[in-house]
Amino acid sequence: MVVRFCGKLALVKTSWTPVSPKRRFYACPIKDSVCGFIGWVDLPMCARSKTIIPGLLRNINTLEEGCNEPVRSINMLEEQCNGLLSMNNMFAARCDALNDEGFKLKMYLCASWFMFVIVIFDIWPV
């Protein structure tokens, strides 16, 4: 247990800098504290580890970014699908309106023929 100069217990954090990658150190629990550096938790890494770990971290970040690309594509396709569904609903409503209009026109046509037949038979006696 390490106590900071401010009297609080120190936290163990991990460094991700290129100089000291994945090396643990003691830090003050207060963010942006003015407490000084106490020391490292573990021994320094060898030179080879210092050169390999940053490259591995870059590879991990590249792979994670590559994994996010299909998710973006899926989200874009879902948005396009939702747009097409709304257009389909709009066209279906328009189709229903046109079917209603067609039905009305058929009824007017039938009524006009019926009136025509009544007029014809009233004029020409049988």
UniProtKB/TrEMBL annotation:
Q: What name does the UniProt record give this protein?
A: GRF-type domain-containing protein
According to the UniProt entry, its GO molecular function terms are: zinc ion binding
Answer whether the UniProt record assigns the keyword DNA damage to this protein: no
Q: Which organism is it from?
A: Lactuca saligna
Task: Give the matching InterPro entries.
Answer: Znf_GRF
Residue ranges spanning the membrane: these are: 107-124
Which part of the chain is the GRF-type domain?
6-42
Annotated keywords: Membrane, Metal-binding, Transmembrane, Transmembrane helix, Zinc, Zinc-finger
Q: What is the lineage of its organism?
A: Eukaryota, Viridiplantae, Streptophyta, Embryophyta, Tracheophyta
**What superkingdom heads the lineage?**
Eukaryota
